[in-house]
Amino acid sequence: MASTTLNDLPDVILSNIIAAVSDVRSRNSSALVCRKWYLLERATRSALTLRGNLRDLFMVPTCFTSISHLDLSLLSPWGHPLTSASDPALIGHVLRHAFPSVTSLTLYARNPSTIQLIAPQWPFLEHVKLVRWHQRPQIAAAGDELNILISECGKLNSLDLSAFYCWTDDVPPALESYPSIASNLTCLNLLNPSFSEGFKSDEIKVITKACSNLREFRAACMFDPRYIGYVGDEALVSVSVNCPKLAILHLADTSALSNARGDPEDEGFTQEDAKINVATLIEVFSGLPLLEELALDVCNNVRMSGPALEVLNSKCPKLRSLKLGQFHGISLPVESKLDGVALCQRLESLSIRNVADLTDMGLIAIARGCCRLAKFEVQGCKMITVKGVRTMASLLRRTLVDVKISCCKNLGAVQSLKALEPIQDRIESLHIDCIWDCTTEDLEDLDGFDLNSFDQGEISNRLVERTAKHFTGSDYDYDGMGSASKKCRYSYDLNSSYTGVDVNSNGYENGNGYGERTWEKLRYLSLWVAVGQLLTPLASSGLENCPNLEEIRIKIEGDCRELPKPAVREFGLSTLVNYPKLSKMHLDCGDTIGYAHTAPSGQMDLSLWERFYLIGVGHLSLTELDYWPPQDRDVNQRSLSLPAAGLLQECFSLRKLFIHGTAHEHFMMFLLRIHDLRDVQLREDYYPAPENDMSTEMRADSCSRFEAALNRRQISD
After folding, report:
1. DSSP label at residue 676
2. Could you tell me if 394 and 421 are in contact, meaning their C-beta atoms sit under 8 angstroms apart?
3. What is the model's pLDDT at position 224?
4. Distance CA 384, CA 373 (A)
5. Facing residues of 218 across strands?
6. What residues does the COI1 F-box domain cover (predicted)?
7. Helix, strand and coil percent figures for the chain, each rounded to 5
């Protein structure tokens, strides 16, 4: 009997199978099987990112005629305008011929001429994302660049300017100049951190009036009432009146987009209150019945917001994601009565930042009411503790898989991991702050906390019973003999492991105890580390066993100039060898500030700090690495140093390396010693990117020489 292979399937089924493959290397591999698979793979590929050099037009692929989304923002040399080539018109002609079906385009638009060159090539573009990290050209009048784009793209329905360095004055005039196209827009993203002040009230009104059919609107705003034209009640109401079809609304103050870490000791209240009252919020929510995702990150106090948030549950029945910043009074339960955001029972994602009056009881009430939460982020909430987070994790054990805990005074690394033990076998994505100041005495203070008790205002038996019944949909025999296994779910003892049950073959207890510290499903880990602190205690703090961890992001922040030379030789990257599947790393030292050149006596310059942080990176089996060098703000320099280049060349398993800064050409040549390295690029993707490279750093010719040397090598696979 002849065996049946995958190739024997009908073309329609095989085509659907190949179309479902998202990994680029897997798709490339499938195209090498036979000509039939090659044709099916090319016919079903819908997105492509070009990474080649502008000088090598003959290498533009012509077999991807079905591509609908084309990304031209990462062409090499990075950040150089397309019009800098010897024959710009030829570039446009070649791209249009190679990709005739493009309807979605991402473009690095260094100057207006780039938009003028590319936009006419695809007149039926529906989605456009413009990218620019360099400063806006001073020669362009307000709105000129967007006028060029909109005039050439009559079918445009989605415009993304979230990474496009421009002025807020550029947007309203362009939209008003083409009212018919503006009214066709369904998606507008203006959530740009480069704006110095954000959009003001009058500008928000103009934009929403011109784009009345928006279903997705994101914008950076000025909520601070100390500034003229601040966004307040009137502007928020205009959004709901002008754009009643909104499904996604994200309004954030520009200071919230900087990702600057706050002070954990801060009380959470700002000096000024936002000019937004509860009645306005209720009116806005009532006018947006189709809302599915809402983010209001105001950065000024919005007090007693609970009643407005209660309206969300009834007025916005489709709401699944909610993000709030500087909203106070979001959950103030009295006894066991739920209020505020806890009544939004359909939420699947909740992010809260700088909620000054959020306590453990409020957090537990949120867990009781929002029983479908799969993602939870909390930042800058000083009053919550391990007890509240652990109780919340217990109540949401069936759904919660993505957690971020940041800048909370009582939740360092050890405390956060202790609090999340109830879901350690389920969580898939995690962010914590690497603060190692938790002592044994701190944990002993929490010993014996029992969620089944009703002492000094703790959770009552009735609350636990009601929660369990609401969560499981069944009666909860709390007082009977059959309740022993359920009761242990809520027992809390940080210094002992529940041993009244057996341990199964996977290392987990066959019950509700949490004795084994294996994070079985954790795939992504994000860490914040203060400059000068070590990564070494990470494993011993509770993350010693993460068998499926694939990706890690480490952000190091602080001022090196205020610190003495570290007492130890290395930061601790070598400790990550304990994670066998770790293959991707983002090492972000971009907010680490120091001396790029000669440091004062007794201090280290940035090259020595880079060596401190990168020692041990060669021990890891990484295939992809994104690295942000530290910076010297006085000279606006983020450059790869000699020690850093020497340590990076030891990463022999790397296939992709992206350095978010500059580097000398001869330092880059060190990287050619990595045998399987396939993709390398320097990206100055930070505001503002330097206009002109230093004479000793990478220029267009230097990039071309390095890439030519890289492409000449034979890759083993």
Report:
1. T
2. no
3. 92
4. 18
5. 189, 250
6. 9-46
7. 35, 20, 45
Give tens-digit pLDDT for 435-445: 987 654 455 55
Question: Is the separation of the CB atoms in 436 and 413 below 8 Å?
Answer: yes
Residue 213 has pLDDT above 90, yes or no: yes
For 647, the token pair is 């340590």
CB-based burial, 249-284: b 16+ in 10 Å, e otherwise: bbbbbbbbbeeebeebeeebebeebbbbbbebbbbb
Check if the beta carbon of residue 416 is closer than 8 Å to that of residue 512.
no
Q: Is 194 helix (H, G, I), strand (E, B) or coil?
A: coil
pLDDT digits (tens, 9 = 90+) for 7-44: 778 888 888 888 888 888 888 888 888 888 888 889 89
- β-bridge partners, 559: 593
A 10 A CB-CB count for 599 gives: 17
Tell whether the model's pLDDT for residue 452 goes beyond 80.
Answer: no
CB 627 within 8 A of CB 598: no
d(CA 540, CA 283): 51
pLDDT score of 198 more than 70: yes
* CA neighbours closer than 13 Å in the CB half-sphere of residue 564: 2
Cβ atoms within 10 Å, residue 472: 12
Residues comprising the chain, all counted: 717
Distance between CA atoms of residues 195 and 687, nearest Å: 10
Q: What is the 3-state secondary structure (H, E, C) of 553-612?
A: EEEEEEEHHHCCCCCCCCCCHHHHHHCCCCCEEEEEEEEEECCCCCCCCCCCCHHHHHHH
Give the chain's mean pLDDT: 86
**pLDDT value at residue 449:** 47
Give the pLDDT band of residue 335 (cuts 50, 70, 90): confident
Task: Identify the band that residue 304 occupies on the pLDDT scale cut at 50, 70 and 90.
Answer: very high
Predicted confidence (pLDDT) per residue in 64-74, tens digit: 999 999 999 99
Upper half-sphere CA count for residue 575 (Cβ side, 13 Å): 15
Confidence band of 496 (pLDDT split at 50, 70, 90): very low
By the 10 Å C-beta count (0-12 exposed, 13-18 middle, 19+ buried), 715 is classed as exposed
Locate 297 and state its tokens: 């990150």
Q: Cα 455 vs. chain centroid, distance in angstroms?
A: 41
Closest CA to 336 of 456, 458, 455: 458
pLDDT-derived band at 2 (thresholds 50, 70, 90) equals: low
CB 350 within 8 A of CB 373: yes
| Cα gap 163→684, rounded to integer Å | 13
Asked if residues 111 and 81 have their Cβ atoms less than 8 Å apart, the reply is yes
Q: Is 704 helix (H, G, I), strand (E, B) or coil?
A: helix
How distant, in Å, are the alpha carbons of 251, 299, 600 from that of 355? 17, 11, 41
Read off the tokens for 68.
Answer: 């609908």
- 171-184 burial, b at 16+ Cβ within 10 Å, e below that, comes to bbebbeebeebbeb
Q: Predicted confidence band at 470 (pLDDT cuts at 50, 70, 90)?
A: very low
Calculate what percentage of the chain has a pLDDT beyond 90: 63
Looking up tokens 């453990």 gives 360
Instruction: Categorize the per-residue pLDDT at 717 as very low, low, confident or very high, splitting at 50, 70 and 90.
Output: low
- What separation, in Å, do the N-terminal and C-terminal C-alpha atoms of the chain show? 35
The whole-angstrom separation of Cα 714 and Cα 717 is 9
Residue 185 identity? L
The residue whose two tokens read 């140093």 is 641
Residue given tokens 């990075």 in the structure block:
78
pLDDT band of residue 465 (cuts 50, 70, 90) is very low
CA distance 529 to 587: 11
